[in-house]
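A.,

Following up on our hallway conversation. C-alpha cells first:
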C-alpha cells in the first residue's frame, strides 16, 4: 500500500498537466492484487483534465473450467504497457491524444489491465485438474480492478464527466463496474461503452462462471441493485440483458451502449468454446442488442459489418462509418449528449 500512496501523490499532481504532453504513469498497488499465474499486478494512468474521467477495462479472453483454463485463450500476466507503446508510436484509437477528432483525448485515463480470465469479475483462487495434472489460476480480476477504481476515487474526486469503457472481456468489466463508478460519482454525466462484448452464451453459462470465478464474493458484482442481487437473481437462467436491465434501470440519467461487428470472429470463437452449436452467434447478438434496446431507453448500439473484434484500440476507430454515421462522431455524441442514434 505504501508504494501506491507514493505513486499516487506524484501522479495526482500530474493530473492537471497538459493531457497531450503528459506521460503514462505506472501504479503498483500490491496487497492482494495478482495475475492468474501469480505474477504482480499493475495498472496505468494518463493524466488529463481532472473534470473528465475515463476508466477503461482491458480485454484478453477468458476461461471457466479446467479444459478452457489450460488453453491459450486468455492473458495470464500483464503484457500491455501503454507507456512503452507511446515510446514506440503504437498508440491508436482512443489512446491517440494527438488527434483532434478523438472525443476522449483530454480525459484523465485510468487503464485497468486484465490477466485473470474472469472478465474483471472474479475473486477466488481456483485449482483445476487438466491433461497435464493440477494447476492453479488466480481469478482475482475484481480485486485488481478494485485497486484501480480506488485510485480513481482518491485522485479524481469530482469529475463532471465519466466514461466507463472496455473492449472484449473489458466490455463486461466495464458493464459491472459502471454501477459502482456511477454510484460513487452521482454528479457526473456518465456514459458506458462496451466494445465487442455482446455476451451471447448458452443458457446456464453464468451459473458455471459464478462458481468458478467466485462472483458471490466479488466486489465487482452490483449486488446493491435489487434485481441483480445474487440472493434474488435466477443465476441458472441469467443473461447479459438482465445485467443491462438492472444497471441501466438503476441509473436512468446515464447512457449505456454496445459496439459490435456482425460477424465478430473472436466473439464467435468464444461462443463455440462455451458449448453453443455452430453458427448462430450473429443472430444471437442482434437479438440480444434489440432486446436490451427495447427494454432500456438509455441504451444505444452501433453495429458495423465485418469480422473485426474491438475498435476503440485500433485505427478503424476513426474510419468506421455505417450509413452517414462516423463512429468517432457517434462516440462524441454518446459522451456529450447521451443521445447518439442507433446504428444501423
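Then the amino acids I'd put at each of the 344 positions:
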Amino acid at each position: 500500500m505504501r508504494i501506491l500512496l507514493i505513486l499516487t501523490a506524484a501522479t495526482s499532481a500530474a493530473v492537471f498537466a497538459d493531457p497531450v504532453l503528459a506521460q503514462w504513469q505506472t501504479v503498483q498497488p500490491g496487497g492482494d492484487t495478482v495475475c492468474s499465474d501469480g505474477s504482480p499486478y499493475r495498472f496505468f494512468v494518463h493524466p488529463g483534465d481532472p473534470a473528465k474521467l475515463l476508466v477503461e477495462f482491458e480485454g484478453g479472453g477468458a476461461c471457466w473450467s479446467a479444459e478452457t483454463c489450460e488453453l491459450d485463450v486468455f492473458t495470464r500476466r500483464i503484457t500491455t504497457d501503454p507507456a512503452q507503446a507511446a515510446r514506440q508510436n503504437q498508440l491508436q484509437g482512443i489512446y491517440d491524444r494527438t488527434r483532434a477528432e478523438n472525443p476522449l483525448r483530454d480525459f484523465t485515463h485510468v487503464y485497468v489491465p486484465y490477466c485473470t480470465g474472469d472478465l474483471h469479475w472474479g475473486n477466488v483462487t481456483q485449482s483445476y485438474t487438466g491433461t497435464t495434472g493440477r494447476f492453479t489460476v488466480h481469478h482475482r480480476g475484481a480485486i485488481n480492478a478494485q485497486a484501480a477504481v480506488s485510485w480513481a476515487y482518491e485522485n479524481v474526486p469530482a469529475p463532471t464527466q465519466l466514461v466507463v469503457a472496455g473492449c472484449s472481456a473489458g466490455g463486461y468489466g466495464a458493464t459491472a463496474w459502471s454501477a459502482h463508478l456511477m454510484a460513487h460519482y452521482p454528479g457526473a454525466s456518465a456514459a458506458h461503452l462496451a466494445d465487442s462484448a455482446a455476451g451471447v452464451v448458452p443458457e446456464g453459462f453464468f451459473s458455471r462462471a459464478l462458481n468458478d470465478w467466485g462472483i458471490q464474493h466479488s466486489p465487482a458484482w452490483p449486488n446493491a441493485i435489487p434485481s441483480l442481487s445474487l440472493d434474488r437473481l435466477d443465476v441458472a437462467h441469467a443473461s447479459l440483458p438482465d445485467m443491462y436491465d438492472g444497471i441501466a434501470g438503476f441509473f436512468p440519467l446515464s447512457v449505456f451502449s454496445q459496439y459490435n461487428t456482425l460477424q465478430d470472429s473472436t466473439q464467435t470463437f468464444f461462443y463455440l468454446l462455451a458449448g453453443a452449436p455452430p453458427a448462430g452467434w450473429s443472430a444471437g447478438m442482434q437479438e440480444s442488442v434489440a432486446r436490451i434496446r427495447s427494454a432500456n431507453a438509455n441504451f444505444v448500439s452501433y453495429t458495423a459489418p465485418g469480422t473485426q473484434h474491438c475498435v476503440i484500440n485500433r485505427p478503424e476507430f476513426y474510419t468506421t462509418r455505417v450509413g452517414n454515421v462516423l463512429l468517432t462522431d457517434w462516440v462524441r455524441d454518446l459522451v456529450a449528449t447521451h443521445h447518439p442514434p442507433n446504428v444501423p
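The first strand starts at residue 25 and ends at 27. Curious whether your intuition agrees with the design.

B.
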